[in-house]
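Q: Predict the assembly, please.
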Amino acid sequence: MKPAPFDWHVPDSLDAALALKAALGEEARFIAGGQSLIPAMNFRMAQPAALIDLSRLPALAGITTEPDGGLTIGAMTRHRTVEHHPHPLLSEAMAEVAHPQIRARGTLGGNLAHADPASEMPAVMLALDASFDLRRAGGTRRLPAADFFLAPLTTALEPDEMLAAIRIPPLPPGTGTAFLELARRQGDYAMMGVAVVLTRAADRVASARLAFLSAGPTPMLAPRAAAALVGAGPDAFADAAETAAQEIDPMGSVQASIPYQRHLARVLARRALALAWGRAA
Amino acid sequence: MSSFGKPLTRNEDPRLLRGEALFVDDVTPAGLLHAAFLRSPHAHAHIRAVDVAAARARPGVQAVILAEDLGTYWQPGPLLVPPPPIPGIIFNQRCQVPLARGIVRHVGEPIAMVVADSRYIAEDAVGDIDVTYETLDAVGDLEAALEPGSPLVHADLGTNLAAEARQARGDYAAARARAYHIIRRRFAYDRGASIPMETRGVVAEWDRRADRLTIWDTTQAPVVIRNGLAAMLGLSERQVRVVAPNIGGGFGPKMMMFYPEEVLVPWAAMRLGRPVKWIEDRLEHFTATTHERLQIHEAEMALDAEGRILGVRDEFLHDTGAYDPYGLTVPINSQCTLLGCYHVPAYDSRFRAVFTNRTLVTPYRGAGRQHGVFVMERLLDAAARELGLDRVEIRRRNLIPPDAFPYDQGIIYQDFTRLSYDSGNYAPILEKARAAIGYDEFLAEEQPAARAAGRALGLGIVCYVEGTGIGPYEGARVQVQSSGRVSLATGIGSQGQGHGTAFAQIVAEQLGVDARMVDVVTGDTDQFQWGVGTFASRGAVVAGSATHEAALAVRAKILKTAADHFECAEADLVLADGAVHIDGVPERRITLGALAGLANPMRGAVAPGTEPGLEATRYFGPASGATAAGVHAMIIEVDAETMRPTIRRYVVVHDCGTVINPLILAGQIQGGVAQGIGNAFFEKLAWDDQGQLLNATLADYLIPTALDVPRMELDHTVTPSPLNPLGVKGAGEAGAIPVGALFAQALEDALDLPARGVEINEMPLSPCRLWEIASGG
Amino acid sequence: MITVRLTVNGQPRTATVEPRRLLSDLLRHDLGLTGTHVGCEHGVCGACTILWDGQAVRSCLALAGQAEGAAITTVEGLSPADGSLSVLQQAFRDAHALQCGYCTPGMLATLTEFLAETPDPTEDQLRHALSGNLCRCTGYQHIVDAALLAAKRLREARP
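A: Predicted assembly structure:
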């Protein structure tokens, strides 16, 4: 299973990379860690005419803590680096992404730009209400994560744009997070997964976000379930989980039927809400 | 000093661990070309046109070969296993072809072969080939395939029936008529793929000046491949050398012979005058290498009031795939292994093998035994429940007693002999397993406590037999070298079973040498050119016995030569530590190496009839197979919401007769159980209704990882086989055979399904499927 | 064609290959280091695992050009130059942790990194660490035993 031929470009600056992409158009693709792109190329399901290697651009990697406590993560930051960061939801979810050998090379930006609806990090970005810096030769625009994922393997990136950085807002005081997924084997794409960010005020939910993976053509937020939780306590979790299970749009797979996926969504959401609640200070 | 029976670490390991061992893809002769195949994307289609012009014109492409280019070389493969001599048997032979001509019958069937300067370019050229297909409806469902009006896999046959065979003994109708209770069930067991870590591969090099063809092949049957390819290519056997070097896992599908690629790569090498290599990639492997497993059984058991089996009747359908070159080995194994450890006075079993538009089915670890065990063990579980008997007790009551051996089962087995269990003692195996898993405590305390706490905890315990060590024969040549090292060559191949150590231990036992001094060569037809292959758990039994006989003969020569040398009686000699000395006179000693030199004089005369050297070749062919047996037991917990199971304990008690190396045996059992767990709970080939395989990647076809296979507790009993000098029985497939039945029983128990009127009578399972079954779906 | 310069097993190596050459093929066929094996070419089986700047990485999921300047260690580099076995390799032998040996080089690479990071692992941690390396022969039990044995021997050898 060998890839089809392509031209190999190694730009030495971000501007050069963006200029190349603009010039070569849609037949060229950026390559970050390659952990999603290369298997697709080995299967010849992707056959780009040119690859633009981003690995020699250190400015694109790294995690910076902003003055407001939020994070800016460079798109070329390797999964392993994110996994070891103290952010509770990023690290907990990242431990479920494939295996350490993949996480050594794979990057957060690459994973998000690949936009597999079964991937963990896109759902985590929705749960965190993250936003993305999309750069082109002419400038940068910032897009909320919820507007970035359009369809399976399809994002809002224009042909001449690169996902350059990910901005994670700070977690408010009294926030607990949880990530749960059920895969057939450790590291497999999950049959269902959920990321929960829950902020508590005394013994009531002040706000919540639930985002699911393997639950539709893109990562899926469950806004009705989240709204139903505001002002409620743990006795509302089961109903909220049921609401969430009905809000999502799972597509079924070889491993899981649609009814079973909804069943898992209900179970995992309930369990994740309880976990996040317990972790909220 | 002797290491026989000891857990000796392996001779093979240092080279494997250092990455120095040769596998087929490591072979790179000068001038090597690389092959890739265009394979059918359709399960069933006419080929209306094939345009290879662009492919042939691509730079770096040396040849693009179609069926029409093969001339008289194009012919259907040989029938490897003829139908057994069962009265009234129907068998329709249809074998695979090297390249499809006019029609394709399964996804993955090869249509064109590209040979190029690199595999990369060869794959590019495959993409250049343009084929016009007229698709046809694909046959997949076994029952629909036999209905009138079904599309036909082989139109000229007029039916999708590949074979029909019935074996019966005793009077089942009478048994049924007087039965106290009848159990009747339908069982479905689905396909699996062997997925060795190394895919298949062939390298062929034709040396025109030496007039010799060398083939490196991931085959489990190098001698048969050598003989067949020589004949096909118009060469003498002595002109062809087949080497099966280190093989990264065999498990059965590498015992299928004369695969299209195996037949074409040597032909291409001779035609092009350059060596050619083909290494199967993983995507190809899913459809180009054989599968096993799909059967549907309608089975019935008649019992008396004490739960004793009066008879069993079984009707089943067996999926043979698009062609049936391997004959009926798998369904015959199912038919025979169903009888298990039990006394079954009346038996009536009929199967129909069915052609489908799917990859061929040939033996894969267990080779049909799984199905027989599943049917029998599930029937017994249902019977126990309906009769109010304990499931261990009903088994115990039906076990063949230890004084009944050899036990004639009265039907024909896969080796074409009348099935007879040579030896066995089953009750102690069951009792050991029962005690080891803590059966009584589990039922009395552990399970009730778990249930009270809302936990789904269950236990499974099942019995099985494994027919092993069948003929026809194998051979071995043992030779003491002048260096003092001993060489052993045998015709079978090795795929990780540790032959290089176990056979060395057999030789070392007889020759008084350290097993580390024995160099074992397997799988090289230049070193040993007679044999059949590594399959059906027969390596240790048959090749091991031949090794033993050859070593005995060399021992006799050593003693005679030394007695002549010392001018003493043979009875006065001691053979130990790589030398011979006179008992009580240690200074009168000669090393085996020196003795080998004496036995091969360069001058002088020898007595007429003398054979040079300290060497002997012996063959061993057992009259019939040796029957191993065992019991697996497991405690499993299920998350009742997600239906995800966790195995808490796993016990295997196995009887494979004399044990040569307990460390190697443990590895075989553990590896077999892992594949059994895969087939029971993880591995399902998902086809759509047009015969497309939906999960042809290792990300979607799930083999167990280190987190999915539990730590196992192994124990064994020993009933030596009277059929071979070592008393050994095979053990290669034992781990895999009963696991499906075990999972079904244990999961039913954990979720208390029968109390809800639900049973598990299918394989494989998964959390999703378990959820559906438990919900009544 | 591109020319790639990298360090393999401590030695500077150069290869001139197509950009699409997979690192696994570059190591095995262009540099002749056939100890690393290929099992799937889609990053799942782990047979091709090598060490890249000390981290276990799948060589089938890397293109030649990406390895420019990398320090790669293959199983040949994990093996003592005098022909003996390393502590980890010896533990594999002692515990019968290999049968066909095809997955073994990948296992060794993964464990080399893991045991350096986690010198006293539990069985569960080990099984997690090994879950990205598939083996079809052993059922994993002896591999876990070997890793625990190696970890113990490495700890004991530490000054």
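Chain A has three domains: 7-52, 63-168, 175-279. The first helix of chain A runs from residue 14 to 24.
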